[in-house]
Structure formats: C-alpha cells, structure tokens
Amino acid sequence: MGRLTRHLNSVLTRGPGYEHTPRGPRFDPASVHGYPIDFTAKTTSPTAASPRDLLPAALAQLALGWYERHLAGEEAAADRFRATCDLLADRAVDDGAALVWLYHLEDRKYHVPPPTISCLSQAQAASVFLRRHLLDGRQEDADRARRAARPLLDDGERTVVARLDEGAALEEAPSTPPSLILNGWMYALWGLRELSLALDDAGAEERYAESVACLLRVLPRYDVGWWSRYSLYPHRLPDLAKLFYHRLHVDQLGVMHDLTGEELFRAVAVRWRGYDTTVHRVRLTAQKARFVASGYR
What pTM value is reported for the model? Predict the structure, then answer.
C-alpha cells in the first residue's frame, strides 16, 4: 500500500483499524458482560490472521471481539478468546506492581518518546483479563486485571494519569503538555468501572469517580462548534477527530450517560451527532489535510 493511499484511507477512516464498532448489544451498565463497544468486526478483519503483529490495544480489542462472539453463542469463540488472552499475557512486561504493554513507536504527533504505555491498552487489557477470570475462575487473571490497571491508579514514574486543575485525566498518549485524547480517556474509565464492579476494587472506584468528574469539567473544550476534537494537545490547528472517531465519541458519550446518569454526556452526544452532515464532513477533510501538512506543529 502506497503512502498516498494510506493517508487517504486514514482521512476517510476506512480499511484495517477502522472496522465498524457499534455500541455493544450485550453491554450491561451494572455488570461485566458484553463490552460497551462491539469489537466483533475485529475478528474478521485481515489483521486478525496475524494477531502477533498487532499493537497492544488492537490485540486487546481482538480478544474482546472474540468474547462478544462467545456471548452470542458461537462454540469455538471462547477458545479463540483464551488464545488471544494468552498472547496478550505473553506481551506484558513486569513492572513491579504493574503489568504494562509497551509501545516502541515514535509518536510524532504528541512528541512522546518511546517506550511508552497507554491508558487505552492498559484498561482494555484489564477488561480482557476480567472476562477471562469470569469465564474460567482463575485467580491469576483477576491479578492480571488489577496489575494492568495500576498505571491508571498510581501517579508515579510509569503512569497514565495527568493532573489538571479540573482533576485527574487518563492519557492514551502520556505527553507534556497533556494530549487528553478523548476516546482513550473514556475507554480507560470503563476499565476502572469494570474493575470496581467485578473485583470490588475501591481504588479503581475512587479513581473512576474522580476522573469522570474531571471529564465533565473538561468536555466542553472538545467542541469546536461544528465537530469534535480528537485531543486537546495545543497544536497550531485543532486536532479534530476523524469521522470514525467522531462517531465513536457519540457512542461513547451515550455509554457514559448510561453509566453515570449525567445529562451533559447525553446532551453532548446528541449535539455531536447533529454535526455529522455532508457539509461538515467535507469541511473536516479539508481541515485534516491542512493539519497533516502542518507537520503537527
């Protein structure tokens, strides 16, 4: 695939990595059951044929997709889920009280030097191992879930917590200044919520409540009046969400309303859904082209 084709697919959010991920049909706000976003399509993507080549978050999402198929009654899906769990466990790095999944890629957009970790992969790994624990009853998987979540709880050297005036934010790309990628923050909140539900983890419950309160204070900053921001990193041009992520934001905000009952989440989801028009999508494409041409300055 050529460089131009890759950029075009990225702008149009199509191809591997941009599989259809609607709201999860078996999501239950009161329990750990189906994941809030349905990753079933990850299991039929061309990338599923080589799971060892996937980055940590993509591997966790593949596992969650297999678990969704297991919940749908597919006989072989549970074994595929277990096999993907094993791959995810093999990729973990022991970091004292934590298990971490390292990214060794240079992050030019947010200027994060490798190796780094992400609230997205840490939280989704916790969600995967919680489900393995519920499926098979193995204590080692409950322990893995807790250790995966440690960087979301600790404010030490290896952490994904950004301290803002508004409270504790969770960082997909732990940058200076904080990038505050919206979809990763919400995914991380779900991992904490599931840990508190499944394992009665008081630390996870406390951080979840603290970070939800922070998100409610910060959320208006992601609205540019006609589209949503992907992050709040202070680039020269706004870091607008690609179409895929804008629509994901809408679904995630609906989940946040279901989890918290906070009206702001529902209201913003409705407003952002209304932004998704042909005129705004054309405007977005032009802006993203200028953003890439700026060199992420």
Answer: 0.95
